[in-house]
Each structure stands twice: as C-alpha cells, then as structure tokens.
Design a protein that fits this description.
This protein has about 80 residues and is an alpha+beta fold. The protein has one domain. It has a 3-stranded antiparallel β-sheet with strand order 1-3-2, with helices on one face. The longest helix is centred in the middle third of the chain and has 14 residues.
C-alpha cells in the first residue's frame, strides 16, 4: 500500500473479497429496510477508490434511487451522493 493510506482504517482498504463494495452493499440493503420506515429522503455520500468509478456506477444502478457522482479537488471522480426517496 502507498504511504498516503497509512491512516485509513484497514476495513476501508480490505473490506471486500471481490470488488471492495461488499460493505456498501450491506449498507444499501439496510437503507432499503430503513426507507420502509420513513417518508423522508435519506441522503448519504460515499467515497470509493480512484479506479472504482465504473464499479460504483454499476452497483448503484441496481438500486431504486438517484445517485450523482462528483470529483475530488484533483478532478478524480470518486464520490457519489445517493438520495433515497
């Protein structure tokens, strides 16, 4: 791992066996259940690796909510805002 990841939690770096989004997928399933209990929009912002943009888009497209992707200050698209309405 590079030096710039030394302060990242290990679970954030090694939290999945296939594509690294397994923890997010668990969260998304929990959010689907939570949404059944509220009429309000739930908004989350997720961060993913600089090379995981397409994986994030593919996974988020499987869920019935709106997502918007945006870049960090270096111009790398690595964040998504997810609005569960």
């Amino acid at each position: 791992m590079s030096v710039d990841t030394r302060f990242e939690p290990k679970i954030a770096l090694f939290g999945g066996k296939v594509h690294g989004f397994e923890l997010y997928e668990q969260l998304f399933l929990q959010l689907l259940e939570l949404k059944k209990c509220t009429l309000q929009t739930i908004t989350i912002i997720i961060e993913f690796g600089f090379d995981q943009n397409q994986i994030a888009k593919d996974i988020l497209s499987q869920y019935p909510w709106d997502s918007e992707f945006f870049s960090d200050y270096s111009g790398i698209e690595r964040f998504a805002q997810v609005d569960i309405k």
